[in-house]
Amino acid sequence: MESFELFGNIDHAKHFIENIKTGKFLFSFVISYTETCEIPGVTFAGADTDSIKFTPPGDAEYLHYGYCKTIDKIPMTPDGKPTPAVLTKTALESASIPHLTINAGSKIFPQLPFIDTGLSFGKNILTQDAMTDSQVSHAVDYGRIVGRTLASLTDCLIIGESIPGGTTTALAVLQALGFDAKVSSSIPNNPVELKNKIVNSALERINSDHPYNVVAKVGDSMIPFVAGMLSSASDSSKVMLAGGTQMAAVLAFASKIGFNEENTVIGTTSYITHDDSANFTNLVKKIANVPIISIDPSLKNSQYLGLRAFSEGFAKEGVGAGGSIISSMIKTGNTSKQFLEIVEKEYHRLFAT
Known about the structure:
Layout: E1 4-7, H1 10-20, E2 25-31, H2 55-65, H3 85-94, E3 99-103, E4 115-116, H4 133-151, E5 156-162, H5 166-176, H6 192-203, H7 211-218, H8 222-233, E6 238-242, H9 245-257, E7 264-269, H10 270-273, H11 280-287, E8 292-295, H12 305-311, H13 321-332, H14 336-351
Parallel strand pairs: 2-3, 2-5, 3-4, 5-6, 6-7, 7-8
Antiparallel strand pairs: 1-8
Helix pairs in contact: 2-3, 3-13, 3-14, 4-7, 4-8, 5-6, 5-9, 8-9, 9-11
């Protein structure tokens, strides 16, 4: 626990950690898509614009197989930096934490067994509504069913996501729900002006303060689905929302439909909690009495440029990386230094010539 930095209700965070030390963990990986990510400059989650839609299924396949089937290589940025799934896979395998994939609106289906919700991907919020109110309602209902089922199988349900462009839709939802949000980005030079332009345009279409209508106008299908999962799962299990900005939006929406705060934490990386271009820790504090557990995976000390890049502002978080690393450390007692040694072996396996 010495490796963790705690924010918000620190006693709650310590109690959460103590309660799950000897328990069972399950990682649920939710893949989704918003056409907002196709706006040039919004995201680096793919080698180019055409390949972005393959990032969520590629992440899922890599976690499952150690390689991808829908694409030739694991998801990368245009300049060759790897998906944070490298961190997640290493964390889960080092602690023998099982995982499963849930499709909540991915444009491309992964080639592996997954739970299919039948949800559609979100539309580009710059030009049109993301979804209909009924689609949001279905997403919440399906999330509640899945969350209730998975919670019955574990003591701590970790929920991660992969949705390119998701920080932009998250920003729109947070602002529409009344929170003064500044969000992180997958690149060091956060395209704040572009995101604000998209969000401001989207917010002009909002004509109701009903949370379902807000998410339908400016969100994506991942947000109501994961909020539904949290709502039911937190009734009977501990839940760790593994992520940054997107999970803040999930928390904001979940606060409108109800969930158990006492069983909930956010797990993320220090690259999110120490991001000066965002206000993550203060934002979460305003949304709910839910603590943040943050981990510095010591990637700045890596011998590999691709791993050091995470500490330099690329990706920062994603695929539930922070929460997965935290959970693996709680279960195994490993330190950040030990995690770095393991993840470097995986990186070498992937990229050694």
